[in-house]
Amino acid sequence: MAKQNIYDNETFFEGYKKLRDNKINANNLFEIPALFSMMPDLKGKRVLDLGCGFGEHCKQFIHRGAQKVVGIDISEKMLEVARKENSDSGITYINMPMEEIAQLKERFDVVVSSLAFHYVEDFSGVVRSIYDMLDADGIFIFSQENPLCTCHSGGDRWTRDENGKKLHLNLADYGIEGERESVWFVDNVKKYHRTFSTIINTLIEAGFSVEKMIEPLPTDELLQQYPDYKDLFHKPDFLLVRVKK
Amino acid sequence: MAKQNIYDNETFFEGYKKLRDNKINANNLFEIPALFSMMPDLKGKRVLDLGCGFGEHCKQFIHRGAQKVVGIDISEKMLEVARKENSDSGITYINMPMEEIAQLKERFDVVVSSLAFHYVEDFSGVVRSIYDMLDADGIFIFSQENPLCTCHSGGDRWTRDENGKKLHLNLADYGIEGERESVWFVDNVKKYHRTFSTIINTLIEAGFSVEKMIEPLPTDELLQQYPDYKDLFHKPDFLLVRVKK
To answer: Does B195 sit within 8 Å of A215, measured CB to CB?
Structure first.
């Protein structure tokens, strides 16, 4: 099975880098705070970051006291930035698709993955590998696009009024799982849709206990500053899950 | 807090009874099979049915070997039918809102609730009472309207083509939890919307381990017989969850 590696595409990479350089985005406002709110005490812990990208989270884990961090990513271009901007003696960056992590033959206390799983076809296989690599009581935390997003192919699925205001999401094919093609800087970005119940059942079948789910929504305070994010009340962009071995 | 008791409304009751008399409906084709697929071995077990209605499930639990079944329902009219059509020496029917079950002071091995929780405002309180009434390793299984349904007030939320074919669901307000008013035989039927994550987190916070979620979808075989149910692939009607103490 060929793994998709859009992040090494030049156009994608430049578009993505620009997006990340803008600090006011849904990742920074919603996904990252929710992810870190679920994080256990990392002091002395061995942490694996799946789809680590530019390595910002890896560096943050070291700041929080992690003893050792391994960041893996399918994109060598992303890791070049990571090694330049977020290197540390405690961090090892490895160019590898996450479907192959069983090859690492290492043990971890915490596995984290930020916004990468919707690109993974074999979710169940990766989840089983994570379970095997975690020590007893190990924690696995991940974020992905919300299933209310991943169910759609193509671009915008909103119905808007004459002023462009989003009225509702045109929800279709939620119950049909599998590959979707979407446009994000480049054409034919492949994503994989799974329902809420498939995601949770896959984790449970691998042996995990579910500890928490988050679908981040804006606070009143945040809405006053960024009123456009009220659309998240129609459809949250993200889903985060914390499970325990 | 006054509990809603639409089932004692004459118009609602007649409409509902007629719906249930027709055996080809989404309950019989999707919800009931999913509910019973999650059921543990009931031999010798004490079972509590919350919102038991006409008592069909209570009778079924006795057929499956349950030692004792308690069926509670807020509607005395429903229980009159239950006592007439589904009585058994092992079944006790009690007219009580499920928010008050802590008063029962009984212990159970299995608690079941079929399509009643979307009428309950204090989900968290009821879940805590269920946890307290279950013995160790006790199982709690429930079905409710899918959160993709409960998020909407009013009636039909579909966008259709000129032939009436459903194109997509107009999904709005999924992230806004709480009361909704809908029309089902009568006006002002109150339902309560909760997101997938709130439902799961409430169960976990009460002390339960999540064992399985089901959002029932039609099989190919069923679609050949009832092709209209393909719309469930846009939006499943039900959510079922099984948890363990």
So the answer is: yes
